[in-house]
Amino acid sequence: MDDYPLLNVFWTMMWFFLWIMWLFLLFKVITDIFRDHDLNGWGKAGWLIFCIVLPYLGVLVYVIARGKGMSRRDVKQAKESEAAFQDYIRKTAGTQGGGSATEELARLADLKEKGAISAEEFEKAKAKVLS
User: Fold this and answer.
1) Do the beta carbons of residue 77 and residue 88 sit within 8 Å?
2) Helical pair 41-53 and 6-35, crossing angle rounded to 10 deg
3) What average pLDDT does range 91-106 have in this prediction?
4) Does the pTM exceed 0.85?
5) How many CB atoms lie under 10 A from the CB of residue 122?
6) 3 alpha carbon, distance to own chain's centre
7) DSSP label of 124
8) How many CB atoms lie under 10 A from the CB of residue 1?
9) Could you write out the DSSP letters of every residue in 34-95?
């Protein structure tokens, strides 16, 4: 280790981390190219070839030319994912009948009071609603 000074270790690590950061940016650009619905097939192919043939320049030009669109597409995708997740939660939390468990129990109690169902039927339906 005596033949490799500490400053050279520092510079090597810095260039390595910069290279890793560039790789992350390259993958981000490539995913953005395929995610953009406004760009036609030839445009996608052109940007992809540009980023592969001249990687550093291609990524830099893409970020400069289409950087604002990248952030808008990220925000749009995050909103769509959140909306889909909230919709899934609403569907999952509800009961099969469409109403909440409390509403279903109130309806069953009303039917029992009117005599439409017996106490035994009420208990069976109550157990089914609560399970």
Assistant:
1) no
2) 170
3) 70
4) no
5) 17
6) 49
7) H
8) 6
9) HH-SSS-HHHHHHHHHHHHHSHHHHHHHHHHHHHHHHHHHHHHHHHHHHHHHHHHHHHHHS-
Examine the pLDDT at 76 and tell me if it is beyond 70: yes
How many alpha carbons fall within 13 Å on the CB side of residue 6? 0
Q: Which amino acid is it at 79?
A: K
**Residues whose CB falls within 8 Å of the CB of residue 93, separated by 6 or more in sequence, listed in order:** none
Task: Kindly report, residue by residue over 30-71, the tens digit of the pLDDT.
Answer: 999 999 888 899 999 999 999 999 988 999 999 999 988 898
Query: In angstroms, rounded to a whole number, what is the distance separating the alpha carbons of residues 105 and 130?
Result: 9
The residue with tokens 């889909």 is: 84
Average of per-residue pLDDT values in the chain? 87
Q: Is the pLDDT of residue 96 over 80?
A: no
- How many residues would you count in the chain? 131
Residue 124, pLDDT > 50, answer yes
Looking up tokens 């609560």 gives: 130
Show the tokens assigned to 114. 């009117």
